[in-house]
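Known limitations

Structure tokens in this collection are predictions and should be treated as such. Users comparing against experimental data should check residue numbering before alignment. To illustrate the layout, the record for Glutaredoxin domain-containing protein is reproduced below. The input appears on top and the generated tokens appear beneath it.
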Amino acid sequence: MWRQWSHSTVKIRDTSSSSSSSSSPFSFSTFKDIQRLCADDPSAPTKKSSIFHRVRVATSIIRSWSATRRLTHSQSSAQTQLDSEPEVVASSVTETPPPQPPQPECQESPPSISIPGADKRIVVYFTSLHVVRSTFEDCRSVQSILQGFRVSIDERDLSMDSRFMKELQQIFGGGHTTLTLPRVFIGGRYVGGAEEIRQLHEAGELKKFVEGLPAAESGVCDACGGYRFILCDDCNGSHKVYTEKSGFKSCTACNENGLIRCPSCSCAPL
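Generated tokens:
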């Protein structure tokens, strides 16, 4: 049934001899090319160091040399400073003057400003004009604070009578000083302006200044209505009078506005 075993007529090529005779382990030409490409070529020339490598080496050498030079310079300067310190200490010891006893300081207090004839009242120089808002508000604030103590106040409005300005300049020593309003005198002594009055009032010290002063009359004056000025009887507020001998001339009884101080509620002039 089955065919008996016998020798095959197909011949198998023996490649062992050819492979052993060849130096390459590969039998195909393509693999030989790969082997040749991968193999190191002993005849290839050796590459020289690039320019960047030489620059990097030169830079590292210069840096190390600079660090060594700075270290040597710092050591020498430190040694020089140590050598010069004893001389500096010796010179400072010899040049230091002996201590002198403290001398008493003579501090002169500024002279106080006062006005005569106002020992029992408060005198306030202010203005009722609204030309400068800050000045007007300061005057109103000071008047409100002082009126709260219910004491007699002699209010002198510079906008109603220019003679008050001359009077205030004489008190402070001439007309060269720049005067700001208001100005407050209590008991004949100058206290200050708006800022000083506010500070004294907030600290509770202003009450001590007004103690013992006469109380203010209640109500409004019937003669002037609280304005403290009335029309002049001689010129009827025109500030001009007529005489047959010299004609018209300025009235000497009133101010430039034809007003005189109210005799009922105003204090006597200083």
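For this record: Residues 51-95 form the longest helix (45 residues). The two ends are 168 Å apart (CA to CA). Please report discrepancies through the issue tracker.
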